[in-house]
Amino acid sequence: MCIRDRLSTRVRLARNLQGHAFGARARVNDRQAVLANFKEIFARSASLMKGTLLEMKDLGPRARRILLERRLVTSDLLGKTEGDPPAGTAVHFSHRDPLSVMVNEEDHFRIQGLLSGLNLSKAWSLVDSLDEELGQELPFAYHYEFGFLTSCPTNVGSGLRASVLVHLPGLVLTKEIGKVLQGLGQVGRTFRGLYGEGSEVIGNFFQVSNQTTLGKNEEETKNYIQEIIKSDLEEAGQEDVFRKIKKDFQAASISVEEKEIRDQMEKALLRAKEDFKK
User: Fold this and answer.
1) H/E element holding 114?
2) Residue 162 host element (H or E)
3) Does residue 36 come out as left (phi exceeding 0), alpha (psi in the -120 to 50 range) or beta?
4) Which of 123, 200, 238, 244 has its CA 20 to 30 A from that of 93?
5) Residue 242's CB: how many other CB atoms inside 10 A?
6) What is the pTM of this model?
7) Structural domains for the chain
């Protein structure tokens, strides 16, 4: 997989406030209290006040859809229907960095950094810095044994999810993608669709990320993700596909020149690109 196949990097931290229900148990007054707490921090924080806070109730359906299509918010923040969004939902965008905070999504706060290419270190640095600042002002829900408490059990611990959006038409066309995706769970990884959890795979775009966060602190999880992303994505994926096809031909006692295999792979990739444009 060449560098152009890795389209973007996202690092996000899930955080909740003590004393307020979160997830499916959160009531309207809980969600409004969480938003009020964030607005107080927003008003006095030097790094936050220069940014922009958008409440979902103030945006029309088209504006909310644009934010979703650009992967700046999630469907959980917008709600499951085209009607009014859930109470207290908002998103804050930094004035300078590719950094944002979703308020009252699945968790009270989702701090996320979204950068182009493979850039985990910088994304982590931005998210970690804002997390430290918010943690000094807000009482995050934390358990001495389990770590940070979150709505979904798979996020408990560090609350960190590091993912890379990749484009894998070659593996899809050669029908090898199923084996790759099945093997992710064996090495502590998982995949999602273009718009994250619960979304479909569109145009051969996949989000590859860590599977669990329990038992690792944030720094350990970030280093772990950096290692597996490098090992899987820095080696040319087209070469992996070529070696597999060549091996299959050899196993079937079929003699095919290397050039012919590569030519057919290139033609298949061009067809995929044309199909995607349609």
Assistant:
1) strand 109-116
2) strand 160-167
3) alpha
4) 200
5) 17
6) 0.72
7) 7-167+179-235 (3.30.590.10), 239-277 (no CATH)
